[in-house]
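WARN retry 2 of 3 for item q-0093 after timeout on previous attempt; input resubmitted unchanged.
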Amino acid sequence: MANTVYQINKGINQSIEFKGLKAQYIWYLGGGVVILLFLFSALYLIGLPSLVCVGVVGISGTLLVVKVYKMSHKYGEHGMMKALAKRQVPTAVRIQSRKVFKMEN
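OK item q-0093 returned
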């Protein structure tokens, strides 16, 4: 078996990048692969033929890789967290009562 050397690019104050994936997306892809491993074993234990299991996991794995790479390129290192935080900011603050503005002496 040939030794393969993977280069991880990380400069000073830069996030880790591996094969085009940035920061947390490396973990998302790794977690997805572990879930697909458990999916394959569950399908095999249920009694489905192994080719069906490989087909389902292969298609799911391809979709996983495409989705994670698309998110990595679209959002970058911190963009997804910023997009999720922006969704939680209300567009307006409504007050039903003027009691808030009442001055108490």
